[in-house]
Design brief:
This is OsmC family protein. It comes from Geomobilimonas luticola. InterPro entries: KH_dom-like_a/b, OsmC/Ohr_fam, OsmC/Ohrsf. The structure is a single chain. The protein is an alpha+beta fold and 88 residues long. The chain has 3 helices and 2 strands. Helix 1 packs across helix 2. 6% of the residues are buried.
């Protein structure tokens, strides 16, 4: 998910000629046990470290841009999965 969000952030900056030198994106994942005791992913945090000189007027916009990540959208609205097995 971090890579996906990073591509959106990079594109945002390139379209506005904003330097990405010194910019970074860090993804952290938290796990929690469900009712049956199995660990599951419970939270994903993405931190965007903006470079010195990043325009303040774009701070909220860069977060909203990262939220457009396609992977995030799939996790929020998961597709149906179907698994089959076939012999030749």
């Amino acid at each position: 998910m971090g890579t996906c969000a990073g591509i959106y952030v990079l594109s945002f900056c390139q379209q506005r000629n904003i330097s990405t030198v010194g910019m970074s994106l860090t993804q952290r994942m938290e796990f929690a046990a469900d009712d049956s005791g199995h660990k599951r992913l419970s939270k994903v945090t993405l931190d965007i470290m903006l470079p010195v000189g990043f325009p303040e007027k774009y701070r909220n916009a860069i977060v909203k841009t990262a939220e457009l990540c396609s992977v995030k959208k799939v996790i929020l609205n998961p597709p149906e999965f179907e698994i089959t097995a076939h012999l030749p």
